[in-house]
């Protein structure tokens, strides 16, 4: 039995952590949660994550939830994979910014685009400000390349990159050459390819 166990629904937000685990190169176990059968709302799983959401990661008895938190934790816990920017350098601040930008700005903007409000909200009410500003900021960041932190691929690329791939696939993001090039770089990563193949297997199981 591995020290790491991912509670996973395929495909879902937990697919991001599945990719992260492949990048990490550590052994892990999978406990499949079938959302269609309501597994996430059953008492056994609610004892793991009372929110009734995936992913949840168990590491030696400690349960971590929320995609960005899990990826940040794993990158720090297994520094040999070089997926983090260590504490003690100013670059870590930028790295953490992108990790939090993923769920708080990029994903939030995409979801609002997918399920628009009846009335246009005031900019100040939105944590991300405006959709167009969010897209411009992230496009400029990935355009520099190859990764958000320059030459180093990090957990921030897993979190943000997964959002960009998802948003592009479902046309929740504008078609921009910066996004297309970034997605192509991600798609070439062996860990991303393994995670995608595993996910297809889990979905068919």
Describe the structure in your own words.
The chain has 8 helices and 4 strands; from the N terminus they run E-H-E-H-E-E-H-H-H-H-H-H. By secondary structure, it is an alpha+beta fold. The chain has 2 domains: 4-82 and 192-204, 3-Layer(aba) Sandwich (Glutaredoxin), CATH 3.40.30.10; 91-189, Glutathione S-transferase Yfyf (Class Pi), Chain A, domain 2, CATH 1.20.1050. Helix 1 packs across helix 8 (190-204), helix 3 runs antiparallel to helix 4 (91-114) and helix 5 crosses helix 7. It is globular and about 45 Å long.
How does the helix and strand content classify structurally? alpha+beta
CATH architecture classification of the largest domain: Up-down Bundle
Helix fraction, binned, reads 40-55%
The main sheet comes to: 4 strands, mixed
CATH class category of the largest domain: Mainly Alpha
How many separate domains make up the residues? 2
Q: Ends: how far apart?
A: 21 Å
Q: Count the E strands.
A: 4
Tally of contiguous helical segments:
8
Strand order of the largest sheet: 2-1-3-4
| Backbone shape | globular
Mean pLDDT: 95
Beta fraction = 5-15%
As residue ranges, the low-confidence spans are none
Give me the strand/helix succession.
EHEHEEHHHHHH
CATH topology of the largest domain: Glutathione S-transferase Yfyf (Class Pi), Chain A, domain 2
Radius of gyration: 17 Å
């Amino acid at each position: 039995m591995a020290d790491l166990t991912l509670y996973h629904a395929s495909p879902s937000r937990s697919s991001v952590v599945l990719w992260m685990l492949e990048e990490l190169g550590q052994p892990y176990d999978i406990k499949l949660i079938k959302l269609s059968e309501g597994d996430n709302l059953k008492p056994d799983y609610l004892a793991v994550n009372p929110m009734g959401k995936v992913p949840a990661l168990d590491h030696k008895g400690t349960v971590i939830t929320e995609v960005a938190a899990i990826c940040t934790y794993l990158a720090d816990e297994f520094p040999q994979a070089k997926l983090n920017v260590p504490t003690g350098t100013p670059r870590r601040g930028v790295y953490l910014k992108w990790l939090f930008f993923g769920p708080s700005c990029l994903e939030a903007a995409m979801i609002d685009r997918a399920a628009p409000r009846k009335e246009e909200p005031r900019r100040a009410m939105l944590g991300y400000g405006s959709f167009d500003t969010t897209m411009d900021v992230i496009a400029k960041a990935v355009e520099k390349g190859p990764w958000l932190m320059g030459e180093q691929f990090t957990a921030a690329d897993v979190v943000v990159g997964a959002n960009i791939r998802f948003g592009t696939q479902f046309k929740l993001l504008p078609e921009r050459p910066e996004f297309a090039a970034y997605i192509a770089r991600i798609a070439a990563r062996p860990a991303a390819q393994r995670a995608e193949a595993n996910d297809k297997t889990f979905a068919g199981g």
